Amino acid sequence: MDIRSGVLASKHVFGSKLFAWFGENAKRGLPELNGLVNLYSSDTGEPVAVLNATALTGFRTGAAGAVASRLLANPDATTLLVVGTGSQAPYQIMAQLCVLPKVTQVILANSRNAKKAQAAAAQMSMTLEKLLNQTIRATNSVVTGLIDHRLSEVEFTGVTDLPAAVQRSQVIVTATPATKLLIQADWVQPGTHLNAIGADMEGKQELDAELFQRAQAYTDDVPQASEVGEIQNPIKAGVIKPEQVAEIGNALLDPTLGRHDANAITIFDSTGIALQDLAAANLAFVRAKEQGVGTQVDLCRHSSRPIRRSTMKVKDFGVEQWMNEYETKAKYNLGEICVSSLSIRELCELVGVDVNDFAKQLVDRRLTYGAIEGAIELKEAITRLYQNLTPDKTVTEHGAIGANNLVLNALVEPGDEVIAVTPTYQQLQSIPEAIGATVKLLPLKRENGYLPDAEQLRGLVSDKTKLIVLNNPDNPTGALMSQAGLQTIVDIAKSVDTYVLCDEVYRHLTQEDGYSPSIIDLYDKGISTSSFSKVFSLAGIRLGWLATHDQAVMKACLSYRDYETISCGQLDEMVGTLALKYQAVLLERNRGIVRENLKVLEEWVHQQPHITWLKPKAGTTALLYYDFDLPSTIFCDRLMKEFETLLVPGNCFDIENSLRIGYAFETAHLRDGMNQLGKFLAKLKQEAR
C-alpha cells in the first residue's frame, strides 16, 4: 500500500492518500487502482472528508499531464499518441484535448495486445462520454462543452506499429505498468513532447534512457522521481544527473525554464505528489458542497445527513429595487428607459400587418412549449441583426436579464476571475461575485468618455481571467464603443484566451446612422445578449436572446438553460418574430424618437446651472451630475415625494451626486418631467441660500 500525506496551508486542510494497484482487477471488471483520500481541518484536526482515490487519481494525473503539455508541447501539434489502454488512458486523453486545440488524431497503442488498442480506439468516444456523464457533466459545464466540441473533431485510431506511431506524433503519453523500455530513443522526432506517466516504483521503465541525452527533462519532484519515476533509469545509467532535471512547478513560475526551441524534445516524468492529491480532493470537496453531493457525517453526534447545496448570496439589486418601489407611483417617470412602448395593435399598424389576421394567429396557436431553443423563424430574424451568424448560434431567453443570468451561471465558477466595467447594469457584476468569482472592476471614467481604458484592462487580465464583461452602449452613461475600441478589447481578451460577454441591449439606438458592430462580429469567443425591451419597444413580451459563435459556450448555456428556462412563450415569440421581420421599420421609428428627445434633453441641460453631463452617444440613458451637497438617494426620494417625478439615484451605480435619466419615451412626457425636475432644482437652490 502506498501512503502519501501533506498539508495545504492556504486551504486550511491536511490529509493522506492510501492506495494500492491490483493488475488483475481489469479481468474482474474492477478498477486496477483503489484507495481513499482523507481530508482533515488543519485548524482543528477534525476529519473533513473521505473521497474515492480512484477517480481523483485519474483526474489529477490527467491534469498534471495536461499542465505539462500546455507548457512544453508544440501548440500546433495535430497528433497525440497514448501508449497504454488501461484506466488512465481516457483521463489523459480528455485532459490533453483541453489544452491541445489543434489535435485531430489520437492514436492508441498497447505494447502487449494490438487488438486491444484497436478495440479501445473504437470505443474511446463512448468511454469519454461515459466519464463525462459520470463525473463532469453535472458540475463543470465549460469543460463538458469543450470536450463535446473536441470529440466531434477528433479521430481515434488503434495501431500495431508502435515505432511508426511514435515517429508521426508530436505529443506522446505513456501510461503503462512496463518494467522495460517501450520507446526507443531513435524513434522520437525533434520537437516531440512526452509525458511519462507509468513509472511509479523502482524498476519500472517506459522510455529509452538514452533519449534523455538529447531531451530537456522535467518532473513534479526530483528526489522522488530519481528513485521511483522514469528518470531513475537515465540517472542510474549515468546519462543525466538529478540537477539537470527541472521541476514543473519552477518551470510554471519561470518562463525561461520552458520550451524555447521548436525542435527540442521535452519529457515530463509524472510521479504524482501528495499535494496534487490534496488539491484535487479539496477542490472536489468544495464542489460537492456547492452541488449538494455526498453525505455529511458528524462524528461527535454519530449522525449523518445529505450535504445541502449552499445558497447563493447576492447583493440587493439597487436599480431594480428602486424602480420597484417608485415606478407605479410616479406621475412623471424619467426613470423609464424603454423606447416608447407599443401595443400589439400599434405594432401591426406600424408594420402594415392586418391586426385581425395576426390576432387570429395568436388565439389559434396551441399553447405547447414550442421550439425549446426558440422558434426557428425568430432565430433566423435575430441573425440579421449580426454579421455572419446562423440560427444555431443563438437561443432565446426571458429578456436580456435572463440571457445574462444564463451566461454567467453557465460559465463562471467559484475561484474564477471576472473583469466587469463600472458603472453598468449591476447584474453583470453581482452575479459572478455571488457565484464566488473574484470580480475586478474596470472603471469607465468621465474624462475618458466613459470608455474602457485599454492599458488599465491589460493590467487587470491574467491567465486566470475567465470572462470580460462589457455593456455597449453603456447603461447609465450612454457611451458607445467604436469598432476600433471593441477590437482593442478583443485583442486583449485573445492575449489571455478569455471570453467577452457584451450586454448589447441598447445596440442600434445610435445618434448617427451606420451599422453598430457587435462583439460577436469581431471575436469567436464573444457572447452577445440583447432583448426586445429597449430597441424594439416590446418590454412586455419579456423576450431576449444570446448569440455566440463559440460552440462550447452554447453547449454550456443550453445545458444550464434546461434547468432554469426550458423554453420561452410561443405567443411572445410570435410577436417578436413579427417585430424583427420588419426590424428596419421599428429601428427607423425608435432612432427618430431617441434622437429627437436627446435634443430636447440637451437644450434643458444647457439651461440648468446646477446640472452637468457628458452627452450620450447611443442608447436611452444619460448620467446627470448636480452640485448640491445632497446624497443621490435623498435627492431622488424628495423629488418623488415632492414633485411626483422618478429618477434613479447614481448611488445605484456607485456614483454619487449623479442621476440616471431615461429619455426615450413620449416627448411631451419628457418635457413635463424635466419641468418638474427644474422646479425641484430651483427649490434646492433656494434652500442652499
List key phrases describing it.
about 20% strand; 24 helices; alpha/beta; about 700 residues; elongated; seven-stranded mixed β-sheet; eight-stranded parallel β-sheet
What is this entry, summarized?
The chain has 689 residues and is α/β, with parallel strands linked by helices.
Could you explain the architecture of this structure?
The structure is a single chain. This protein is of the alpha/beta class and 689 residues long. The chain is 40% helix and 20% strand. It contains 24 helices and 29 strands. An eight-stranded parallel sheet has the order 7-6-5-8-10-14-12-13, with helices on both faces. Helix 2 (53-72) packs parallel to helix 3, helix 2 packs across helix 10 and helix 14 (376-383) runs parallel beside helix 21 (570-581). It starts with a strand and ends with a helix. The model has no long low-confidence stretch (mean pLDDT 92).
